[in-house]
Amino acid sequence: MSRVTRLFRSAPAYPLLLPGMVWLAIFFFVPMYYLLDMSLRTGNLLDGFNQVYRFANYGDAIRENKEQFIRSIIYAASATALAFCISYPLAYVIAFRGGRYKNFLLMLVIAPFFTNYLIRTLAWETILADHGIVTSTFRSLGILTATDKLGFTSGQRLLATPLAVVTGITYNYLPFMTLPLYVSLEKIDKRLLEAALDLYANRPRAFMRVTLPLSLPGIFAGTLLTFIPAIGDYINAYLLGSTQTTMIGNVIQSKFLTFNDYPSAAALSFTLMAGIMVFVIIYARILGTEDLA
Amino acid sequence: MTNEPRGSRADIEALAFARGALTRRDFMRRVGLAGGSLAAANLLAACGGSVGGASTQNPGSSAGAVKYPHTVSPDWNWSNWTLYIDEKNHRHPSIDMFDAKYKTHTNYIEDINDNEEFFGKFQATLQAGQDIGRDMVTLTDWMAGKWVQFGYVEPLEWDILPNVKSNLLPTYHGRSIDPNDEFLVPWQSGLTGIGYNSELTGRDLTTVSDLWDPKFKGKVSLLTEMRDTFGLVMLNLGIDPSKCTTADAQKAHDAIKPYVDNGQIRAFYGNDYSNHLANGDLTAAMVWSGDMVQLLPDNPHLKFVVPDEGCMLWTDNMMIPKHAKNPYNAHLWMNYYYQPNIAALVEDWVNYICPVNGAADVLKAGDPSIGLQGDPKVADNPLIFPPKSTLDKAHVFKSLSASEETQFNTLFADLTGTA
Amino acid sequence: MAAGTEVTQATGAQQDTAQPRKAPSRFWARVRYQLLNVFAGLAFLYLLVPIAVVILFSFNDPPGRFNFTWHKFSTAAWQHPFATPGIQDAVVLSLKIAFLSTIIATILGTLMALALARYSFRGRSVTNFVIFLPMATPEIVMGSSLLTLFISISFNRGFTTILIAHIMFNISYVVVTVKARIYGFDRRMEEAAMDLYANEFTTFRKITLPLIMPGVLAAAMLAFALSIDDFVITQFNAGPDITFPLFIYGAARTGVPVQVNVIGSMIFLIAIGLMAVNILYQNYRGKRDAIAISGAVRKAQLAEAT
Q1: What is the ipTM of this complex?
Q2: pLDDT, tens digit, 9 for 90 and up, residues A209-233
Q3: Which residues of A touch B417 (CB under 8 A)?
Q4: Do residues B406 and B349 share a domain?
Q5: Beta strands in B67-119, from DSSP E residues, in sequence order
């Protein structure tokens, strides 16, 4: 070991970490404490919120908004699945067939991020409008009749239906899925694939035995990076949805910012956070990946 | 009314039927009829253009003691609802003229989208007794009443509001949310009724029940303002929203709920119903009157109707938040706006109901000195200067106690899906 | 993509002629091959159509207040992008917040990345977890918890609280981006420098910083982009202040002015332009290095030969 390395080893890292850690501690972790604290209070804006350690706030909040919780899980899961189905072939094509256009193609993938989140969601509002080309095409092809039957849409329209909300969420978080998938596919040694082809002599089997398992870290990261923001989203449900498609984010947002019912909003927010933590831990166990950051 | 902790202010009971329009005393004196619709009926007198109705009360007589330093600040801040002032080439001529006249700069901030949401943003600061960075805000009467009640509003200095004194329509004096005219100056009033796209309906709509027509399934929206939505539905059920109870709210909720569940109602909107009506995503909706006039360029098939069973009436008020830094500028603006020609200039664009006496006449004739062309179409528009027959049907929602408000809101949130 | 496809088609054709017996399965293999490309093409369409709509409608001249249906081509909004009242203040506020939060988050994050990449210390995995957590938290939870903090301590929301929030959510992204870069470069260069200069600070300034600079710049760009685009956390903590995304949210209720599309398109084109320049520059640098190396090799060969 060289002198320098030893010096680095012994030199304290803490001064470098301190400012950032303090910032995160004060503005990420302390707020979590206050959120928990608020979730156990009762009261209203004018009389103030008193700490009474009312744990029933959680029961009440969850019971009253069971529907929205379930809907959020279903929408976020659907959007994640859809994003995966779109992203995997896309990332595959870029990684294995992109050639010298790889960077350009990747740029196209993240292009949506360069327009504002609200603007692109509003663009979907225009695209899916009841009298737009997309809706009328789908209608005349009978697609809407099918999706109406399945409950994805209703009333022969796209806007203000679950399908529109899921489409918007999928769109807004798609790059979060594509990029990690691309990174893990790109890392795969092409010679391994050739060897697999020789071994299994069958493309689908070679894919299942080699490519897919090797891209597992990308799948893990991609699904989490899509699912987590999707489940807390409320803009897509607000702009593209109806009263039948409100998600838990809409409830938290309106309770915090419109009705000023902080305790129950905090209880919902904290439940969402805790639920996601549990989910991440279980998911990490199943897929066997620990290192995310 | 039974569960209403009313306290010492006897006058407030008038809110029960006059929320933001008239005190009971005024009702009796002026019309001698009963019910909330009267308040509205009185609005018509001068609104229709007759100039006769000069102030019968002496506003501010009891609050004349207030004095602010009479120095114009180089800039001041005013929060208003979006699309609620005259606009020309992306400028606001009325504000530009004001700025030029008084050598100030008006930061006109269109950041009010929802009364509750706006209140939520500032309540903590107001409660802490601090300046909220706004010298004037424009809130709907029930919310304005709340601010007055909690002492979040600076009193007016009437000595420097001569135009308001002489041109404020008499019906707006002594409203129960501000019985002594100490705090509020009306900006605009409006009606809540039904807007629809006649091309898509293929027929005229006349009642709230028409919104439940299965043909319009998924193409109907109600309003996020609980008082407007519950009010119209209560009228439809034969309940007077000016004296409704929690049980009545429950009835209104129960009347709406099936249509939420079966997807008849697409959404609850604030101002945002307008784009959906304009592009045909909605066939019919509960709407505010001024919007329909403004939307005609987007879609000439849009119509506003006062339902047979009645409509809701509301007023947005200018007021000075407690501890505002530039109350004098706000006063200057109020007084400036209450010149009939300036009010007409704003009205020509805003298209709600104008509280300034004489504005209709100026609108008809035009005023070249401020670049206002005569616009008889607006002056004669029954939505902007409503006839008595319309105002007779207009109701004002009652003032809710804190506990009622919570109960009403809970019922309403169950409908909007954000319970 | 196009080039790659052509090449394979060419080889496929050759093989077809070489082994005519296997033609049917070859045919299906090719269909399958092309199918994937078509699918990728459709995915790109899905990604890009909304952007095309945004840009297209920035040239619209709507008759009323809604920019939803195509009416008439006009460049009026492009000529006066700040004509709508309030939009300029909103954009300026967004830029201010983005610049400040980027600078502060980049400094804090880079320091943390250096510590994590360089030292092994007690609490390293805890630190990694702390940095990971904000990225695994939905924005609405971060936004609402921060709001609860500000409400609880009666802190007025506004410029300061937006800035605090943006720095908070940016730090983690900076750490991750810079850390990846530090892992990627040769430590021996630093060690050599340390042996020569024997001064940690000089080494940092002359060797470490230039080496990690591309990573720091990438992190800064990411932070800037995240900040200028952020809606959720900002909505919770902005109080009365209006950033550009909040302006759009307000406008969405009453009619989004064409200017919003114009500014959205501008941000998009600037970002794409910067990225394209970056890609071209990296290609150029790669080529330049290759030329330099090959030149050196040739020189050495020449020297050897003579």
Answers
A1: 0.90
A2: 888 998 999 999 999 999 999 999 9
A3: 68, 243-246, 250
A4: no
A5: 75-81, 105-112
